[in-house]
């Protein structure tokens, strides 16, 4: 039995228990570590082979070698309690989880921690191998380094951070952020925080095009702006819109 007590989960073992955790994000690994500390049998299932600390993902997009620090292989932490695979079906009656390929994992208790999704580079959910994901980040670092100008599409929290990371690491580059609303960052944030985010970008000399819908017609105008200095520069477009 699992009981919520404040910020902790009180676990009372009654009979044979095997917990299956679907998803190895922040919630999944927290559940796994707690079960591990209590000696309770469990299996953590994730399509990837490593936990990704995606809070630092955008820094890994501009700084070579940083991505290596943002991945922790599940097997190193959970050993045989980790199974890599994609869950395709749940059967609550039979208490089984079916993986792609037909394998079944039985459980007495099920924890679903499938997390959220989003575009690269904010997330790296499309790569099942963390080594491949690291290489993907190294590739975008090279693209940023080689670009004369960077266009960031989307002025939510991810877009704001992406523009700031590029301009902080490479202050000589031209960075343009285009957003469909006048205010930057997520609407759940306080107006003062959103205003401060805009001020920081302006201080870093990020060009802001606000209130323009990110459609191809407008993108064409933006690209014309990026190349208006004469010679056509190497330009990179980073989409942060889901």
Automatic annotation (TrEMBL):
Q: Which Pfam families match?
A: Pyr_redox_2 (PF07992)
The record's keywords, sorted A to Z, are:
FAD, Flavoprotein, Oxidoreductase
Question: Which reaction is recorded as catalysed by this protein?
Answer: ubiquinone-10 + NADH + H(+) = ubiquinol-10 + NAD(+); phylloquinone + NADH + H(+) = phylloquinol + NAD(+); menadione + NADH + H(+) = menadiol + NAD(+); menaquinone-4 + NADH + H(+) = menaquinol-4 + NAD(+)
What InterPro entries does the record tag this protein with? FAD/NAD-bd_sf, FAD/NAD-binding_dom
GO terms under biological process: apoptotic mitochondrial changes; positive regulation of apoptotic process
Where the record annotates domain FAD/NAD(P)-binding, the positions are 18-212
Instruction: Show the GO MF annotations.
Output: electron-transferring-flavoprotein dehydrogenase activity; flavin adenine dinucleotide binding
Kindly give the SUPFAM superfamilies that the UniProt entry links to this protein.
Answer: FAD/NAD(P)-binding domain
> Which superkingdom does the taxonomy of this entry point to?
Eukaryota
Essential cofactor(s) = 6-hydroxy-FAD
> Which cellular components does GO assign to this protein?
mitochondrion
Q: Which family does it belong to?
A: Belongs to the FAD-dependent oxidoreductase family.
Q: Per its record, how is this protein called by name?
A: Ferroptosis suppressor protein 1
Source species: Scleropages formosus
